[in-house]
Design goal:
Structural class: mainly alpha
Order of helices and strands: HH
Number of strands: 0
Radius of gyration: 22 Å
Distance between the termini: 53 Å
Strand content: under 5%
Helix content: over 70%
Largest sheet: none
Length: 85
């Protein structure tokens, strides 16, 4: 892995490194001694990417729900009647 620790990598950096590992393996640029290390690194990068996707999904859902609540509050009539346009 690069000089950055796994947790410091952005999604784009992790995905880029995965592509680099895959390309090296597909092109036969990896000897058998290096292969297991690269496969382990790739597995860690896949896990990191999944975690970042899940975290982004939670943030998006939270923001969306908050916006929906704010919109509902703004469109609610003073007598409690829901007014939608």
């Amino acid at each position: 892995m690069s000089k950055k620790t796994k947790d410091e990598l952005s999604y784009g950096q992790a995905a880029g490194r995965l592509e680099e590992i895959l390309r090296k393996i597909e092109e036969g640029q990896v000897d058998i001694d290096e292969l297991s290390g690269l496969v382990g690194e790739a597995a860690a990068l896949v896990t990191l990417c999944r975690q970042k996707i899940q975290a982004a999904d939670v943030k998006v859902k939270t923001i969306t729900e908050q916006l929906e609540r704010e919109t509902a509050d703004e469109t609610e009539a003073p007598d409690g009647e829901d007014v939608r346009y």
